[in-house]
Amino acid sequence: MDLGLKGKVTLVTGGSRGIGKASALALAEEGCNVAICARGKEALDEAAEEIGAKGVEVLAVQADVTKPEDIENFVARAAEKFGRIDILVNNAGTGRLSDLMELPEEEFRYNMDLMLFGLIRCSKEVVPHMRKQGRGRIVNISSIFGKQPGGLVDYDSIKAAVIMFTKDLANYLAKDNILVNAVCPGPIRTFLWEAPGQLGDQLGGMLGMSGQEAITWFAEQNIPLGHHGDPEDIANMVAFLASEKAKFITGQAINVDGGMVKVCV
Ligand code: NAD
């Protein structure tokens, strides 16, 4: 299917690995020029090279989305290089299993800055560009844990707030032909689950098994399809929502989760 994205300009936050990089690659595959940001220069440059190999132009900007000045710089540099901004994928994020009574408030606030205010600020920065063009797409990466609790206390609330912000922003920008949707991934095999000390190991520590064993156990217990998803499973939905094929879809929060969410939301 030709998604009609050739020549469009996409910004992806947290584009150096995982779901962000897969989304950037999927959009590049469709002919989009891509700007990515993340904090670490090395991973960012490697990802930029991989994306550029698709034959599109790439801009990699070191930026921490908890810092408003970094977001302003990222968007300004992308607009300067490409002359337009068509699509924003708000993806940067993190998460860990947390206990309500022990979770430091500073950590909760930091994660809110990262996954909620970072996303709000990025959206506000791109809107003037999209308004000028009379068209735009914003895709926010939320989580199924924004719809049902996942045991990551701060994360669950923040991702729920992302869904409601998505719906409000979609209503607010509908008259400008800027469509705003959220993708709610279920468990996906990325750094977040698989890297040392991350969710797999955290869960394994509680269950008395290795991280990889815990990932398999979790999937068998919770995901009807019986396994985690791949970053590309989310990237395909992102590319579709960014495309002309999705021109009547806005304000939605779409699960891509192997059947994990059971309620009708
Ligand atoms: P990941 O750790 O592989 O990638 C996260 C990306 O965000 C990286 O590029 C990282 O450098 C970047 N990032 C982190 N903090 C940043 C900051 N302060 N400024 C700029 N960039 C920053 O994780 P992932 O699994 O690909 O997660 C991507 C998004 O998907 C996150 O918002 C996450 O909450 C969401 N998500 C992931 C899963 C999952 O199971 N992996 C499930 C649901 C939602």
Strand order across the largest sheet: 3-2-1-4-5-6-7
Summing up helix and strand content along with how strands pair, one would put the structural category as alpha/beta
- Characterize the main sheet: 7 strands, parallel
- For the secondary structure, the number of strands is 7
Assembly level? single chain
Count of separate DSSP helical elements = 9
What is bound: which ligands? nicotinamide-adenine-dinucleotide
Q: What value does the average pLDDT take? A: 97
- Roughly how much helix do the residues carry, as a percent range? 40-55%
3D structure, described in words:
By secondary structure, the protein is of the alpha/beta class. It has helices spanning 18-29, 41-52, 68-82, 105-133, 153-173, 191-194, 199-207, 211-222, 231-242; strands at residues 9-13, 33-38, 58-62, 87-90, 136-141, 178-185, 253-256. Strands 3-2-1-4-5-6-7 form a seven-stranded parallel sheet, sandwiched between helices. α1 crosses α9 and α7 crosses α8 (211-222). The longest helix has 29 residues, at 105-133.
SSE topology sketch:
Layout (H helix, E strand, L loop, with lengths): L8 E5 L4 H12 L3 E6 L2 H12 L5 E5 L5 H15 L4 E4 L14 H29 L2 E6 L11 H21 L4 E8 L5 H4 L4 H9 L3 H12 L8 H12 L10 E4 L9
Parallel strand pairs: 1-2, 1-4, 2-3, 4-5, 5-6, 6-7
Helix pairs in contact: 1-2, 1-9, 3-4, 4-5, 7-8
Nicotinamide-adenine-dinucleotide binds next to helix 1, strand 2, helix 4 and helix 6.
Compact overview of the structure:
This protein has helices spanning 18-29, 41-52, 68-82, 105-133, 153-173, 191-194, 199-207, 211-222, 231-242, and strands at 9-13, 33-38, 58-62, 87-90, 136-141, 178-185, 253-256. With 265 residues, it is of the alpha/beta class.
